[in-house]
Design goal:
eight-stranded mixed β-sheet; 15 helices; four-stranded antiparallel β-sheet; 14 strands; alpha/beta
Length: 446
């Protein structure tokens, strides 16, 4: 019998190796991904001098969280579903990275309006922002470009630029209820365009694209072979006279990744439950499917308690709950729009849905303020009303207000806004001359 050979231990091997490190000080570097990632809204807001008036309580029309003020609450059915999942105790462990089968089946049934969907087409994520992150991560390559709307949700840029992806913005037109400038959109596309992001209903505009307009967007994507990422977190948040139409339901050949979740419609943003629906066309997304599952493994899946409750949440929440929520937001939008429309120097654009309104500023009539940032700062100082400046969405001389606050707060905020504008609005000589001529003309008639 041969003698056993002694195997050196790891410590023995380490002591035998020469030390190669020449470090003599701390020098901790960060990755290019971390360095390139930034939040435009946070950068702008942190640079503002936000000091509310000491004698007026702050009214924050800036927060895109519908639960902030406590006036909008999830349905009892949603609460009961979570309570039952906790008591059952079957949501305490890990789930498959793309989500429990039963939860994905429930989502597939819920989104049948988007087109034929099965559980295999669903990937559960940690909120809609996580869904967008995975979609951009799987399609984006350094040096490529992605098309995003302007004004648009700033997280698209946050997620893309960390990867070294160029963001190209296509304009949404306020005079056309925030429809996309299709001519400009098509001109932005080149060989390196990896995806087109379509937000409908829109943030920050509250826009709802018509079926015809969406068909025109899909046609552009089809002719240039560009996949679509559809941010539809506000699906069904649509006011009377408008209709939500899923991009995927119009697509014949264009593959679509549709992003949604519980966040806004079910009033539980903190529960972090979102999803990606893979609408493949002609098997274009065969590698994308695998890539999305690979990326899901990085965080080992989304909240499992909410996953266990998901079938009951989606199936038991009554339509009356959603109808009442949309009716409330529509009423708030009408109150704000009708009142702000009467304020000199401001031009609100009535939203078609979602929970926001954009308001244009005739900045030339407010010579004390250089731009929307200084306008917003002064509004907070004097009236304790805080709206997000348009530059947060790459759209200067506008501001965005949120419609989810209690109705009495909207009424008070608009009252203060009117007082602020009347104090600072200045009439230029040409306009004054036109007004005087009009007055003289009326006098001569008598």
């Amino acid at each position: 019998m041969k003698d056993l050979v002694d195997i050196p231990t790891l410590n023995q091997l380490n002591t035998q190796r020469p030390i190669k490190s020449k470090r003599n000080r701390w020098n901790v570097e960060i990755s290019d991904f971390a360095r390139l990632t930034h939040n435009p809204i946070r950068a702008i807001v942190e640079g503002l001098n936000i000091q509310p008036h000491p004698d007026k309580p702050l009214i924050a029309l800036s927060i895109g969280d519908p639960t902030t003020f406590g006036n909008l609450k999830p349905s009892q059915e949603t609460i009961d579903a979570i309570r039952q999942a906790v008591e059952d105790g079957n949501g305490n462990g890990y789930a498959p990275a793309n989500g429990h089968q039963e939860a994905r089946e429930a989502v597939a049934r819920y989104v049948q309006h988007q087109g034929p969907v099965s559980a295999s087409d669903v990937i559960l994520c940690s909120g809609c922002s996580s869904a967008l992150d995975l979609c951009i991560s799987v399609l984006g390559v350094p040096g490529k470009n992605i098309l995003i709307p302007k004004p648009g949700f700033s997280i698209y840029r946050t997620l893309a630029e960390g990867f070294g992806i160029e963001c190209r913005t296509y304009d949404l037109l306020p005079e056309r209820d925030w429809e996309a400038d299709l001519t400009q959109l098509e001109r932005l596309i080149d060989e390196d365009t990896c995806a087109l992001i379509v937000t409908n209903p829109g943030n920050p505009c509250g826009s709802v694209f018509s079926r015809a307009h969406l068909e025109a967007i899909v046609d552009i994507a089809e002719r240039h072979f560009v996949p679509i990422i559809a941010d539809e977190i506000y699906e069904h948040f649509v006011f009377p006279g408008h209709e939500f139409c899923a991009v995927s339901s119009l697509s014949r050949r264009v593959p679509v990744l549709s992003c949604g979740g519980l966040t806004k419609r079910f009033l539980v943003p903190g529960w972090r439950m979102g999803w990606i629906i893979i609408h493949d066309r002609e098997n274009v997304f065969r590698d994308v499917r695998k890539g999305l599952v690979n990326l899901s493994v990085r965080i080992l899946g989304s909240n499992t308690i909410v996953q266990r409750a998901l079938p009951a949440i989606l199936e038991n929440t009554p339509n009356d709950f959603f109808d009442d929520l949309v009716a409330t937001l529509h009423r708030h939008a009408e109150i704000a729009y009708k009142s702000i429309k009467k304020i000199r120097g401001l031009h609100p654009v009535m939203p078609g849905g979602a929970m926001y309104m954009m308001v244009g500023i005739d900045i030339d009539h407010f010579p004390e303020f250089e731009h929307d940032l200084s306008f917003v700062e002064a509004l907070v100082h004097e009236q304790s009303v805080f709206c997000l400046p348009g530059q947060c969405f790459e759209y200067p001389n506008f501001f965005r207000l949120v419609l989810t606050v209690p109705e009495e707060m909207i009424v008070e905020a608009v009252k203060r806004l009117e007082e602020f504008c009347e104090l600072h609005y200045k009439i230029d000589n040409e306009e004054l001359l036109v007004q005087r001529n009009g007055l003289l003309s009326q006098m001569t008639q008598y």
